[in-house]
Amino acid sequence: MAVFWKAMAGGLLLTLSLTLLGWGVEGQGNRQGKKEVSGGATVYLGQDRDIWRPMMYTTVNLSEIRSIKSSFQLRTFDPEGAIFYGDTKNGQDWFVLSLMDGIPLMQISREDILVSVAGGPKLNDGKWHTLEVSHQEKFVVLEVDGSNRLEVGMQSKQTQEILVGELRLAVGGILIDKEKMIVQFQPQMDGCVREGSWLNLSIPWEADVEELWPCYQNIQPGSYFAGTGFAIFNTSVFPIEADHVVKTELWGDFSKMDGTILSIKAPGQEIIFALVANNNTKEVTLTFGEEKLSMNDTFKRLVITFETDKLQVFQDEDESKTTKLSIAGSHPGYLTPWRGGRLAFGGLLGKGEDDVGSQFLTGCLEKIQVQGKDVDLDLAVKHMSISSHSCPA
User: Fold this and answer.
1) What single string gives the DSSP state of each residue in 64-99?
2) In the predicted model, is pLDDT for residue 332 greater than 80?
């Protein structure tokens, strides 16, 4: 997937082209020992890597550019993330396409001009959308599904120049300091692109990853845990309300989960709370200190409320199916771990302060809420094997 832009006579000519870049059936090594990838196949943008580092990139001589239009298809439930980056003059002039709140966002820097524009329909509905980027006179035009358009026009008063040299392209990240952008965003993108056509070029792209991750044929909203890692938050980011209650809600098919769903550790103490699914026994076990509650795993929603003197568990929507755990004298209060502790989704926190975990979860949490607000795992310290916004359906 590529966006191309360069300057030509008459002011700024932004020649952009976004493409679906897909892996071939198998990545091939090049002379530098890096994997080469080709356009046209389906590729997952959430590949394991540093969150700002592009998943793939290429460099092309400007003299080889013949096309000023490209198209690709994008599918995601993720409201935010980097899609494409391009630059000339080794990063002095650059272009970034991303999503923000599910809406396309273009940011462009050239000479004395820095501009950003966002608009169009929300694209994070889990459906395939066709995007086409082209240059039309002094405008860069992003077209979505053949009709919705986002346009940005730029014209510099500086003397025009004929660009020579190289154009750098990158997918899923950027090659400049993120502080140079007008609008800051989270770069991780849990999404897929396919059926790309870019610049009519056949040069290969390079990727630093060792393993190429596939895209699932069908997806649903949620957070998918592959059994290899977990997501950690400081509990201080979840404020305790005036009524001294912390409410945690989890949605999903608990009968298809296996491993630690949730664990909490107070500062300097052992694990004080754990919620674990066992696919062999078909039970979900909740442990708080020495107290333990085992439940049949047939429910689809679990609500856990932490209060000063008790902990309550609700299954599905039926509050009659409620079990209260009373506090034991040797325990700290039920709200103690929520004051400066650690909370992990998808794994059991370690005993030390390094938070090395175990008993990782395999399965899909369709929705996670704390204090009535959706939890975005992209804001956590997490293992890259976790798909924050989609699960295989």
Assistant:
1) G----EEEEEEEES-S-EEEEEEEEGGGTEEEEEEE
2) no
**Domain boundaries along the sequence of the chain:** 21-215, 223-392
Determine the Cα angle at 132 with ends 130 and 134, to 5°: 175
Among the listed residues 42, 79, 43, 393, the one whose alpha carbon sits nearest the alpha carbon of residue 224: 393
Poorest-confidence range of 336-345, 352-361, 371-380? 352-361
Annotation: CATH topology of 223-392: Jelly Rolls (2.60.120)
- Size of the chain in residues: 393
In whole angstroms, how large is the CA radius of gyration of the chain? Answer: 24
Best-predicted range by mean pLDDT (289-303, 325-339, 360-374): 360-374
Percent with pLDDT over 90 in the chain: 34
Task: Please give the Cα distance from 258 to 260 (Å, whole number).
Answer: 7
Torsions phi, psi of 197, nearest 5?
-135, 115
Q: How far is CA 296 from CA 255, 260, 282, 300, 353, in A?
A: 9, 16, 6, 11, 33
CA distance 16 to 193: 17
Domain 21-215 and domain 223-392 have a common topology = yes
Q: How confident is the model at residue 349 (pLDDT cuts 50, 70, 90)?
A: confident
**CATH class of this structure's domain 21-215:** mainly beta
Of 38-42, 189-193, 246-250, 259-263, which gets the smallest average pLDDT?
Answer: 38-42
Among candidates 337, 265, 275, which has minimal Cα distance to 303?
Answer: 275
pTM recorded for the entire structure: 0.81
